[in-house]
Amino acid sequence: MNHSKYIRKFIITLLLPVMIFSLQKTVAQKPFHTFSIDSVHFLLDGKPFQIIAGEIHYARIPERYWKQRIEIVKAMGCNTISTYVFWNYHEHSPGKFDFKTGNHNLSYFIDLVQKEGLWLMVRPGPYVCAEWDFGGLPPYLLSIPDIKVRCSNPQYMKAVKRYIDTLSGILRPHLIIHGGPIILLQIENEYGSYGNDRNYLKTLEKQWKENGMDIPFYTADGATPYMLKAGSLPGCAVGLDPGGYPKAITMARRLHPGVPVFSSETYPGWLTHWGEKWAQADTSDLFNEIRFLLKNNLSFSFYVLQGGTNFGFAAGANASGKGGYQAAITSYDYGAPINEQGRTTPNYYRLRKLISQYRKNKLPPVPSPIPVMSIPKINMRPFTSVWQHLPVPVWSAQPKPMEAYHQYHGFILYQTRLIGRKNGKLVITKLHDYATIFVNGKYIGTIDRSNGENSIIIPKTKSKTPLLQIFTDAMGHINYGQHIIDRKGITNRVTLNGITLMNWEVYNLPLDSLYINRLTKTKASKKPGLFFKGIFRLDSVADTYFDLSGYEKGMIWINGHNLGRYWNIGPQHSLYCPAMWLKKGRNVILVFDLHQLKATPIRGIKKLK
Fold first, then answer.
1. Strands across the sheet containing 381-385
2. Of the listed 55, 91, 131, 190, which one is catalytic?
3. What is the 3-state composition of the chain as percent helix, strand, coil, each rounded to the nearest 5?
4. Helices 154-171 and 198-210 sit at what angle, rounded to 10 degrees?
């Protein structure tokens, strides 16, 4: 007889009631709450609840600093975090999602919010704007020739469904009904300023509900009647961007009775484009707006409380300015109460003092600032040339947009031989966005979309068939408005004195990590398009800003991490580098510049310049 079998059975029989009781006790102790809406209020556990939210974007903040940023938002008096989910940050190619690695780990971010005792408003789009590339939509959509976005286009909606189905699986365990911090979910974003496809909005709402997102929804639009009529949905709370004044609240309540109205974006700062002066938001009315909202127990969210950084190719663009195109700078400092590096500003303390007057509980202390350091002069050397690291070309009868070659960011080279017409006025129809032009390897000049430029004079040469090269810098995809379908590279055609140029070789140069890691040192070149390299050593690490004021236009990598774009037209001349991207000991800095031929030193400074 197997006595051990019966002994185990006896022990299990004795212990099972104890185990069940322990499990029931644990479940009973988990702090489940309810969140709902009535005709006026947000309701937490059935009681009116005023949302005081601070918006931060986890994708723009190094993951190691998420906790500090959340703590500093809490210390200002906020009870809620608001965040965008950038679809294209998580799905770079169709069906390949990343919600786990580093800054992509959305679940970890949500857990940190909950551990700090804060609630969470999620803004998942699919379109979000946010001065982010393509407004958060994945650029792979632009490889579909007839794609239409933000509407009921079948190809678009197929991708949207895949996104919502996948994201819902990440968010669902964190809903308030399951013991998590998520209390509100936004449907689309400021749709009333773009279109009027109500079926599209209803489909999004239906898809979220079918995926178990059983929490209140809201829409957010500008505080004008036509935007609110086109962008809202029955039963959804109404967000106003902004809504910190009586007239806006009254108007929205008249148009949409029966649901709460709140200021979903209250602006303490503003964005900046390349070539502008630093945006200085007029805060003269801000504190009056906050007083009005606090006094009347109206919910609101600061957009943004801390902006962060558009690392790599993340910065978007607007269809504005002289050339109908303005790219956003790399820094998303935004003039916000918490600056790009996570430090408090005078406005932070003014707002903290004001909010504390309306909060019953004493606010927690402000966290200590994250250390920042300067780095002495780093000597740079020419390393190699983009011309010596060209991939195998693709042939095209006429140039196609970058996305047609399944490239979505970076640079792209178009080249052809001039036959027949060999000099004169070269016109690039719809160049997106900036190009350096070469004939037989000689630099001729630039064409800049943001200046409204589309042509350049090609000089005479003695060559029978001169080689024309158009090296194109694809800056941010437009993120707002009617021109959001913004393909990159040469998006139409090229003519020389009215003759269309044919037979092109096209070189894809995404300058991604795979490309950068394969670079090898080569002989010095005098043709613009150089990489410069510097080696420096550190005894300790802290945050810093690398000063690129000695260079013209390009990108910078630190130990393989892409810090983003620089451009000597300003106003930004230094790029933020978090401490965790630096190393004790040997560090490598790599700079790619479109124009620079001479290496100049680079140093680390303590603040944005």
1. 381-385, 530-538, 585-593, 553-558, 561-567
2. 190
3. 25, 30, 45
4. 30
Is residue 487 predicted with pLDDT exceeding 60?
A: yes
| Helix H or strand E encompassing 114 | helix 106-115
Distance CA 263, CA 243 (A): 4
> pLDDT averaged over the chain?
94
DSSP 317-374: EES-TTTT-EEBPSB--TT-SB-TTS-B-HHHHHHHHHHHTT-SSPPPPPPPPPPB--
Continuous H helices in 131-215? 154-171, 198-210
The Cα 75–Cα 231 span in angstroms is 34
Q: Which of the residues 55, 63, 188, 265 is marked catalytic?
A: 265
Q: Comparing C-alpha atoms, which of 510, 585, 518, 274 is closest to residue 383?
A: 518
Give tens-digit pLDDT for 195-229.
999 999 999 999 999 999 999 999 999 999 999 99
Tally of CA atoms within 13 A in the half-sphere of 342 that contains its CB = 30
| Exposure of 524 in the CB half-sphere (CA atoms within 13 A) | 7
The answer to whether 223 touches 189, Cβ cutoff 8 Å, is no
Exposure string of 44-57, with b = 16+ CB inside 10 Å and e = fewer, is: beeeebbbbbbbbb
Judge whether 63 counts as a catalytic residue: no
Determine phi and psi for 375, rounding to 5 degrees: -125, 125
Contacts of 332 (CB under 8 A, 6+ apart): 57, 60, 131, 271, 304, 307, 308, 309, 310, 315, 340
Q: Quick check: is 190 catalytic?
A: yes
* Pairwise CA distance, residues 53 & 306, whole Å: 12
- At 30 the pLDDT is 53
- Which backbone phi and psi does 326 adopt, to 5 degrees? -135, 115
Q: What is the pLDDT of residues 323-368, one digit of tens each?
A: 999 999 999 999 999 999 999 999 999 999 999 999 888 999 999 9
pTM comes to 0.94
Give me the helix-helix angle, 66-75 and 106-115, nearest 10°. 40
